[in-house]
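go over my protein:
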Amino acid sequence: MSAEKLVRMANQIASFFRSYPEEQAIKGIHDHLVAFWTPGMRRDLLSYASQGGGKLDPLVVKAVSDPQTGKNPIKKAISGPEVVGDLASDAG
């Protein structure tokens, strides 16, 4: 998928969350990207953002960057049994 289309889609998500308080908007954008975007789409968006991301909404930029840890915050987290306990699930 083209970077232009990913940027447009990400900015549409930001537009939806614009009326929320900023912290909730950033979390909402993050959660949407993790839940509904493929790993390739998230990777391409991160690549675009890391190259300046000039056309990305500032809320999207905040949702895909974590300046404190430098980690990828839109990578889906999966826990093993040592984290969720025996017979537990990390599913949605």
